[in-house]
Amino acid sequence: MSEVKDAKVEPGVALWCPNAAASWSLLFTPVFGAYLHALNWRALGEHERARASMSWFYVGLGLLAFLAFLAFLGIVGFYIGPLAGLVYLLAWYFSSARVQVKRVKQRYGDSFPRKPWRKSLLIATGAGVGYLAIVKLVVPVLILLLVMA
């Protein structure tokens, strides 16, 4: 048998599936995946990689805030936001997420305790709705108030 199939998970180490976290990042942005990957790295005892994933998380939050600010200024066109998001997603995946996907696969194969998705997906959905509400509702009202002033 291969070493991967014989690999055993340390007791108590439950992880979010790194592939699934990366896939959900297509909908919820890499902010979501980077945060879950950081928690996975922490659970695996790889604290330096956890810090690197948290850096991706904070950069992603900064990018979202910057894009909201550009929307406030009326600068963000139809293509700028999605293009910036796609570039960020690809950069995150190929420089960070893929490393965890490979590491977990190499270390555990497909058999490791998995954390449930329900709470994480509900939080991500709430955060996404909140962000869209700010960008699509609050920002236009602020622009209108500034124009009227």
Question: Layout of helices and strands, plus pairs?
Answer:
Layout (H helix, E strand, L loop, with lengths): L2 H4 L11 H26 L3 H27 L6 H29 L9 H31 L1
What this model shows, in words?
This protein is mainly α and 149 residues long. It has one domain (14-148). The chain has helices spanning 3-6, 18-43, 47-73, 80-108, 118-148. Helix 2 crosses helix 3 and helix 3 runs antiparallel to helix 4 (80-108). The chain is elongated, with a radius of gyration of 18 Å. The chain starts with a helix and ends with a helix.
Task: State the gist of this model.
The chain has 149 residues and is mostly helical. It is 79% helix and 0% strand.
Descriptive tags:
149 residues, mainly alpha, 79% helix, disordered N terminus
Approximate helicity band: over 70%
H/E series, N to C? Answer: HHHHH
Q: β content, as a range?
A: under 5%
**Average residue pLDDT:** 87
Unreliable stretches (pLDDT < 50, length at least 5) are 1-7
- The structural domain count equals 1
Overall strand count: 0
How many helices? The count is 5
* Largest sheet properties: none
Shape: elongated
Radius of gyration: 18 Å
The secondary-structure class comes to mainly alpha
How far apart the termini lie comes to: 73 Å
